Amino acid sequence: MSANIAEGFGRYGKRDKINFYRYSFGSLKESQDWTQKAKIRSLIAEEEYNHIMSELEKMPKEINYLIKFTNEKLKK
């Protein structure tokens, strides 16, 4: 997620920036999937799993805010 967001910051056009922010949603889903697999495979404890998932659940709101801010503040 962070790499896509960072790449979006490095882009000059609004459309490019927002595309990379949207790609971060896909990375978010991948992170959730890998976290579930880690729990199933007993690589992380239940407490760790719950903490990671609760943090990941906050991300869609943050990413949407970033997209909205970019849409409103950049001209093109």
What this model shows, in words?
Helices cover 80% and strands 0% of the residues. The protein has 76 residues and is mostly helical. It has one domain (2-73). Helix 1 packs antiparallel against helix 2, helix 2 packs antiparallel against helix 3 and helix 2 (14-40) packs antiparallel against helix 4. The model has no long low-confidence stretch (mean pLDDT 94).
What labels describe this entry?
mainly alpha; 76 residues
How does the overall form come out from the CA principal axes?
A: elongated
- Tally of separate helices: 4
What is the radius of gyration? 15 Å
Strand content: under 5%
Mean pLDDT across every amino acid position: 94
Order of helices and strands: HHHH
Number of domain units? 1
Instruction: Please give the share of residues in helix.
Output: over 70%
Give the N-to-C terminal Cα separation.
Answer: 24 Å
Class per helix and strand makeup: mainly alpha
What's the number of extended β-strand segments? 0
How would you sum up the major sheet?
A: none
Uncertain segments: none
